[in-house]
Amino acid sequence: MKKALPFIGFLILVIPIILGIYGYLWYNSAITQPNGESTEEVEFEIVSGQGVEEIADNLAAAGLLENPSAFVLYNKLNPELSSGIQAGYFDIAPSNSIEEILVILQKARTQEDIKVSIPEGLRYDEIAEILATEFSKVEGGFFSKTEFLSIVENPDSSPFNEPTAGYLNSYKPQGENLEGFLYPDTYFFDMHATSIEVIEKMINTLFQDRLTSEDLSAISSSDYSLYEILNIAAMLERETFTDEEKPVVADIIYKRLEEGVDGVNLLQIDATLLYIEKDWKADAFSLKNSDSPYNTYRFVGLPPTPIANPGIASIQAAIYPEANDYFYYIHDNDGVIHYAKTLSEHNQNVAKYL
Q1: C-alpha distance from residue 331 to each of 240, 248, 281, 346 (Å)
Q2: pTM of the full predicted structure?
Q3: What total of structural domains would you count in the chain?
């Protein structure tokens, strides 16, 4: 009996640890794994006054939630998110995880709202086309593509409300258009939203929801303005295929700006040539003799304005570049990037991969 006591004591100590580890693994898997396979979004409604348990049951009934108890527990452990759940309509896919669902539930829309998805790396004229297409599906809307373009191209004379006017006064050079400031995201616009209200929402999303105080502080402490950061981020958006390569290419851009290549501070970025043509599929090689100030093969430094509207991954890569020894890069025909330290190595990569 005496020999059994230490063993029993051992079990008393070990079993709670094992259960704790199992519980942690179960919880972590439950909140991070997709609830299903389908990526097709389903409209889900939360009625004012509904509690977390009822919301969980309704999500499960709609086929959007596999484990209601994990959803309830996640809400209890994250009261700042749980308290932000709004009443209204949401678009949720079975492939969303519990973590993703709770983020989605922070921003409700009305059933009449217009959903518009703006991809990263588009010019403002391309964004105008998408907005015009989506708003044209609703009768009686106030959005005007002509007015949108006029405001974007002449923002200094446009009557923006605060805080939009404050952001532009602080960060946009006088006389420049809004290229770079129209944050790409999925938006729900009121069906009667005006062009200026659409623009304000996009700009405010950038400064209020995406850029953090730490990001702004890092920019303030750097040698570059926020406008220059957006300029670099826009090139990253068009020049890279993955988020992993963005900080590396960002450092290459900074080295070319500050140290130069063979004594010349030319960026030599093809995407700026394509901006000249307003055609991302144009032949960049045929444009290398252009007199446009966007020709970074002829003119040193940054292009006059951002060439597109970048997402947060590109912006943060421009703020926090990854130091490296490379000066050159190319993408092969499969989109895989290859770096080089010298022009000789770069030419070898071109011969090998292109």
Answers
A1: 8, 14, 15, 11
A2: 0.80
A3: 3
Quote the CA–CA distance of 326 and 252 in Å, as a whole number.
Answer: 6
172 vs 255: CA distance, rounded Å: 24
CA 263 centroid distance within chain:
35
φ/ψ of 91, rounded to 5, equals -110, 110
Q: How many CA atoms lie within 13 A of 289 on its CB side?
A: 1
Among 176, 196, 192, 215, CA closest to 316 = 215
The token duo for 254 is 């900074």
Structure tokens at 72: 């309830």
Indicate whether 301 and 313 sit together in one domain. yes
What gap in Å lies between CA 263 and CA 288, rounded to an integer? 19
Nearest to 134 by CA among 121, 148, 123, 120: 148
Q: What is the 3-state secondary structure (H, E, C) of 160-201?
A: CCCCHHHHHHHHCCCCCCCCCCCCCCEEEECCCCCHHHHHHH
Supply the range of the domain harboring residue 178.
114-210
CB 44 within 8 A of CB 92: yes
Instruction: Choose among 320, 323, 314, 306: nearest CA to 228.
Output: 306
CB 280 within 8 A of CB 238: yes
- Of 172, 187, 210, the last residue of a domain is 210
Query: Tens-of-pLDDT digits for all 354 residues of the chain?
Result: 455 556 565 556 666 776 666 566 777 888 899 999 999 989 999 999 999 999 999 999 999 999 999 999 999 999 999 999 999 999 999 999 999 999 999 988 887 789 899 999 999 999 999 999 999 988 777 899 999 999 999 999 999 999 999 999 999 999 999 999 999 999 999 988 999 999 999 999 999 999 999 999 999 999 999 999 999 999 999 999 999 999 999 999 999 999 988 778 899 999 999 999 999 999 999 999 999 999 999 999 999 999 999 999 999 999 999 999 999 999 999 999 999 999 999 999 999 998
Tell me: do 301 and 245 sit in the same domain: yes
With vertex at residue 71, the alpha carbon angle to CA 65 and CA 76, rounded to the nearest 5 degrees, is 165
